[in-house]
Amino acid sequence: MDILEIININDVPLIKALVINYMTYEYEADAELNDDSVLNELRYLYNNNLMGVLVDYEFTFSNHQLEREMSPCN
To answer: Which residue has the higher pLDDT, 8 or 18?
Structure first.
């Protein structure tokens, strides 16, 4: 199964584990994750210690890109 198909947008622990594993080179990137925008997004989140705020973001996969959208504040 494609890695992009199994990641649930609400599954913060899975995304966190994916990032940590990728950054420690324990995760061999799936061909679908070789898109620079995805890797750059994962690297940005990891390098800036933003894993704790993932719950505030919605993640959608489109054309093998990770798009980040802030939820509107009411």
So the answer is: 18
DSSP 40-61: HHHHHHHHTT-GGGGGGEEEEE
Q: What whole-number distance in Å separates Cα of residue 32 and Cα of residue 4?
A: 7
Contact between residue 45 and residue 19 where contact means Cβ atoms under 8 Å apart? yes
Q: Where are the beta strands (DSSP E) in the chain?
A: 57-62, 65-70
Q: Is the pLDDT of residue 41 over 60?
A: yes
Contact 51, 45 (CB under 8 A): yes
Rounded to a whole number of angstroms, the distance between the first and last alpha carbons of the chain is 38
Per the CB < 8 A criterion, the answer to whether 65 and 37 are in contact is: yes
pLDDT single digits (tens) 9-25: 455 556 655 655 554 44
